[in-house]
Write a structure and sequence with these properties.
Number of strands: 12
CATH class of the largest domain: Alpha Beta
CATH architecture of the largest domain: 3-Layer(aba) Sandwich
Order of helices and strands: HEHHEHHEHEHHEHEEHEHEHEHEEHHH
Helix content: 40-55%
Largest sheet: 6 strands, parallel
Low-confidence stretches: none
Strand content: 5-15%
Structural class: alpha/beta
CATH topology of the largest domain: Rossmann fold
Distance between the termini: 43 Å
Length: 403
């Protein structure tokens, strides 16, 4: 999904301009050469080149990007980090408004980063789109607080975050400004409804993924089932339930988790007794891990629509996940949807797949077929249809209210 939205809009003749904090242009490196960025950060930023976007349509602010990154690295608490995100969202909008929107007839923003721009555009009669990339902050905070209460000592306490209420209020204000609210999953859409948001303006548009590998369906074999989990190792991804499921399926399943470890030393040590924690790996190496696995597991507590599930389908892996992961998995067809916080249900599905290898192979073939419905091209078709439908309704409303 790397810059997929502006590429899709450009290909459809709908992109007036792309605003971003940083793009890896030649000029940007000249500006940043004296800032002393670490080699790792430089490598990550080097990948931020919006291919398919004409240079004349690109506006970015490398100095602002550097300041934003520096402030994030200096934040010493969740509250400080939230304050930085709030500042960056306001500053980003201020810069866009000062630049001007040219001949644009609409704007497309992402949650928490577009309030002032949406207000500016709405006051001028422009069509406003806002994408909610994850469940609302209010929902996420409640779910994570419940996990922290249930599993004290698993993650380092960050202290109270006095800015989160402002962050959640900013999201709600963005919903109220938007003519169209794009959600990657029903879980996100339901979260907006639960917060009293304008559900009538929400449209679920699942994402897409184009694999760099050629996968074939998994075949039946006699050995332990290989289970892959991917993402940050922590409470939001359901780490305690992965641990318990691994304990329950000892000798039946071998569990590997790829991703940075955000647990306390004691919790990580307990996890390592039953789960192979590999830490973060470069993205090109993920194909190797998908190829190793027979099954993908993601018992998330809160997501938007997890990219790793699209990747796993494209690798031909049956997926065991929760409704809160926002996946496109069909229960009983290309995987299983289990209740959130239910390690026993996870273990039961792993035992079933270990027992019935023909079922695993059938689900693997279904997963590959399902992935072809969720390529970036298919995502573009769904996205443009949603925008055009909402635009038509917007224009009809304007016409009906015209004097």
């Amino acid at each position: 999904m790397h810059y997929a939205v502006p590429r899709i809009l450009e290909a459809a003749g709908m992109l007036e301009r792309l605003f971003t904090d940083f793009a890896a242009t030649k000029g940007a490196w000249k500006v940043l050469s004296g800032f002393g960025w670490s080699n790792g950060l430089v490598a990550r930023m080097a990948g931020r080149m919006p291919e398919g976007i004409p240079a004349r349509k690109l506006t970015h602010w490398p100095g602002f990007a550097f300041e934003y990154n520096l402030c994030q690295r200096r934040a010493r608490s969740p509250a400080e980090l939230t304050r930085v995100h709030l500042w960056a969202g306001r500053e980003f909008c201020r810069r866009i408004i000062r630049h001007g929107l040219g001949g644009a007839t609409g704007v497309y923003t992402f949650n928490s980063a577009g309030l002032e721009l949406l207000e500016h555009a709405r006051a001028r009669g422009l069509f406003c789109v806002m994408e909610q990339t994850i469940a609302p902050a209010e929902i996420e905070d409640r779910l994570l607080a419940e996990e922290q209460d249930a599993f004290p000592g698993w993650e380092r306490p960050g202290g109270p975050d006095r800015y989160r209420a402002e962050f959640a209020a900013r999201e709600r204000a963005e919903w109220n400004c938007a003519d169209l609210i794009l959600c990657g999953s029903d879980f996100v859409c339901q979260g907006i409804a639960a917060c009293g948001g304008p559900i009538e303006r929400c449209r679920v548009v699942p994402y897409g993924f184009d694999p760099s590998w050629q996968a074939t369906p998994k075949t039946a074999c006699v050995r332990e089932v290989r289970v892959l989990v991917a993402g940050a190792v922590g409470l939001r991804k359901g780490a305690p339930y992965v641990l318990r499921a691994a304990q329950l399926t000892k000798g039946i399943a071998q569990v590997r988790w790829v991703g940075p470890v955000g647990l306390t030393e004691n919790a990580a040590a307990e996890m390592r007794r039953h789960v192979d924690l590999l830490g973060a790996v470069p993205r090109p190496q993920m194909a190797e891990h998908y190829g190793w696995a027979d099954v993908f597991l993601l018992p998330s507590i809160c997501e938007g629509s997890a990219t790793v599930c699209y990747e796993a389908l494209a690798a031909g892996l049956p997926i065991i996940t929760t409704p809160n992961a926002g996946s496109v998995v069909r229960d009983g067809v290309d995987g299983f949807i289990v209740p959130v916080r239910d390690a026993e249900a996870i273990a039961g599905k792993l035992e079933l797949l270990a027992r019935d290898r023909d079922l695993l192979a059938w689900m693997s073939a279904n997963a590959l077929a399902r992935s072809r419905e969720f390529t970036v091209e298919k995502y573009g078709e769904r996205l443009l249809a949603a925008i055009r439908d909402a635009q038509a309704n917007y224009q009809a409303t304007l016409a009906a209210n015209a004097p």
